[in-house]
Amino acid sequence: MRVMITGAGGFVGKHLIENLKGNHEVIATDRLSSPPIGLRVPYLSMDITDNKNVREVLQKVIPDAIIHLAAQSMVASAWADPASTIYINTIGTINLINMIKDYLPNTILLTIGSGEEYGLSANLGVPLTEEHPCFPQNPYATSKLAMGQLALQLAKKHNLKILHLRPFNHFGPEQQLGYVVSDFASQVAEIEQGRRPALLKVGNLHAQRDFTDVRDVVQAYTSLLEKGPDSGIYNVCSGFAYSAKQILNIILSFASVKIEVEQDPDKLRPSDVPLFLGSSEKLFLTTGWQPKHQFENSVLETLNWWRIRTKAG
User: Fold this and answer.
1) Which of 57, 170, 204, 289 is the most exposed place for a label (fewest CB within 10 A)?
2) Which CATH superfamily is domain 176-209+241-277+292-312 in?
3) Per-domain residue ranges of the chain
4) Rounded to two decimals, what is the model's pTM?
5) What topology does CATH give the domain 2-170+212-236?
6) How far apart are CA 187 and CA 254, in angstroms?
7) CA atoms within 13 A on the CB side of 131
8) SS3 track for the chain
């Protein structure tokens, strides 16, 4: 299968390429003018907000399937610029779907949403399924919900095959800062190498979230692509929740030096949802997918990646 990936230069894209390329022909796209360092598949520059550019790339590649990762994915950035987030995540996806409709109607599209689309439904305190209502609580989540709803509406109207995936929190080696596991791991790596004092200042550590290793997440995407079910929504999650405190304690247990932890009032943020947990039963029944990576090992691998990166400067 010829698979095109949008946003291939990002954290998830790099892992997805590795997962796909042994069994599929992979073409990477991103808005960068030149391919990211280390990319070992054909690459084309593509801006999903540029209709002409999207059309030219699609007509050149003629993919059997597209996994649409390109997005503005930072919640903080979405609050700072909601309009840009909506434009990239929602309007950009509509552009892509319109080009598929006009030129490649048999191409399968996987749109990547977010577990955050469920928002306040998480207060039910149960594993969230695809049937639970969505009450998103930030512009990023809103943009992803709008993207998914429009994608499925257009799929029905134009007889397209579109799967909207809702991955919950995922992490692993190469994840950028701004996410809890990478933030803690990077700071511990810097402390171990004497680049900062042996003190971690933290905020609210009690909120619990569903975490999955990114390598399991991309395997879920691949499994859905290969099974080719009907259009619909699929959660991608582990079904297990960890608090920030548990994650920090795991990382500290691997640290080579003693590190003090201090709560910083300036970092405290109220949590609308103390527990955010998903159900991947639909995905399992459709593909047989289950997470393979053990959580503590994945945390250690992420820490080791930051150790190498920090040492290299």
Assistant:
1) 204
2) UDP-galactose 4-epimerase, domain 1 (3.90.25.10)
3) 2-170+212-236, 176-209+241-277+292-312
4) 0.96
5) Rossmann fold (3.40.50)
6) 13
7) 4
8) CEEEEECCCCHHHHHHHHHHCCCCEEEEEECCCCCCCCCCCCEEECCCCCHHHHHHHHHHHCCCEEEECCCCCCHHHHHHCHHHHHHHHHHHHHHHHHHHHHHCCCCEEEEECCHHHHEHHHHHCCCECCCCCCECCCHHHHHHHHHHHHHHHHHHHHCCEEEEEEECEEECCCCCCCCHHHHHHHHHHHHHCCCCCCEEEECCCCCEEEEEEHHHHHHHHHHHHHHCCCCEEEEECCCCEEEHHHHHHHHHHHCCCCCEEEECHHHCCCCCCCEECECCHHHHHHHCCCCCCCHHHHHHHHHHHHHHHHHHC
Per-residue pLDDT for the chain (313 aa), expressed as one digit of tens each? 999 999 999 999 999 999 999 999 999 999 999 998 888 899 999 999 999 999 999 999 999 999 999 999 999 999 999 999 999 999 999 999 999 999 999 999 999 999 999 999 999 999 999 999 999 999 999 999 999 999 999 999 999 999 999 999 999 999 999 999 999 999 999 999 999 999 999 988 999 999 999 999 999 999 999 999 999 999 999 999 999 999 999 999 999 999 999 988 877 666 678 999 999 999 999 999 999 999 999 999 999 999 999 998 7
Q: Do domains 2-170+212-236 and 176-209+241-277+292-312 have the same CATH topology?
A: no
For tokens 């003090």, name the residue. Answer: 260
Please give, one letter per residue, the 3-state secondary structure of 153-188. HHHHHHCCEEEEEEECEEECCCCCCCCHHHHHHHHH
